[in-house]
Amino acid sequence: MFNQRSSDGAYLTIPLRESFFTDRFTPIEIVECFKDRFAYLLESRDQGSWARYSFIGIDPFAFVKKGDEEFVLNDVNGEALARASHLRELFENAMAYLKVQPIDSPLPFTGGAVGCIAYDAISDFDKVPRHDNHDLCMPAYHFVFCKTIIAFDHYEQKITVIHFAMLHDARDEEQKEIELEKAKISIKNIVHMLQTNKPDSQVNPWPEASHSKDIDQIKWRSTMAKSEFVEKVKRIKQYIASGDVFQTVLSHRIEIDLPVTSWDLYRTLRVTNPSPYLFYLKCGDFEVVGSSPERIVKVQGNDIEIHPIAGTRPRGQNQKEDDQLAQDLLEDEKERAEHMMLVDLARNDAGKVSDFGSVKVPKLMAVERFSQVMHLVSIVSGTMRRDCHPVDAFTAAFPAGTLSGAPKIRAMEIIHELEPTARGFYGGAVGYFGFDGSVDTCITIRTFSCKGNKAYIQAGAGIVADSDPELEWEETFNKARALIKTVERAEKLFRRAGEVHHV
Fold it and tell me: Which residues form the signal peptide (predicted)?
């Protein structure tokens, strides 16, 4: 999405900006200052260069939805502002309508579309069958544009407020000046509120140890019985033996009764499972809450980055054990082979939209340590071709091979055949498409889709030629266990303490 002027050379969406230093607020407290106006929170809470900013969106003014035949940009009253048959075209038309004035800022995100895309949206980009069973009744796309972005810089303890003046209804220059003055008053009110108010509610002190119930004692329901999963693993191994695929990710969904609000669930998740990509999205009658370690694609200027992650070990109890586990991971031939397969997939995806010869692998199979686990991580980079749009870079890499398999199209056909329901947001994407053309998206894993008093999680296993069906079933629950325990811990912290919070 690139900034465009109107036909008379004027911009119609004008950013205003104010910054100030503070040590009084956390992003959680900022959200609770604007409960009725809040739309999303994007954070990064882990060691390393990713963990600098939190972004809070308030005052939504437009939404991206997908109907049966077309994408639509609607205002808050449901009036269509732009239409298109393809996601790229929709964002181009949205920018043509909005006519956003550029803003010079060191922030990686200064406004644009924030939201989520379901795994099943792949049918809009590739020749993959669309699943018939969408039993959760959630849309394939939900993106929101907000009038106000509050950026929290954790390194400098600085808050930057960006507020957009919307001049589309102004009939002349005098009315434009009036709207600009209104916007200046609005941003000053927001800054004043941040500088003078402090929420009453405080997060309970975290227990020194989590005495979580065993997974078998927590009520859950899966879309697939163990025996069914085992038989489907065997079926995938037959496909592998016949040369159809090298790997396919088979998953199943788990439904959990949610004893707390989705907001309190997020507050717990960001502490118990901090990751490079943390997100809380309000999407009408449902919320998407997650903690993802893996980027799908990032676009900054003409630079493209994909971060394949594959290969996992738990963190050690001390530095010596941690280093031993890291070395074991680096020497595991099976983990290395699976990782290289995903690196090759990422190189192929980047190559679809990059200048010839520009695709590189600047980092290969480095051990990255996260809060609970360590992974093998690589970086694949490229230079985007001039005839490509940032949305093209996203669709080239979507969905991630980590959640589909290789070759990607055939693996997705097998997933469609064997999984009983549409995946929804599992294996899809969460992130932003900025007004300035920047894109940053992560894989929707370690994520809750919350609707009413239910939370839905999904976990899968990458099936290869020597997979043990019983162990693959156990792997899915090893992945799900941390999320299930997060629900139980949230209940202890909030519901039992009588401190349930809504936003």
Answer: none
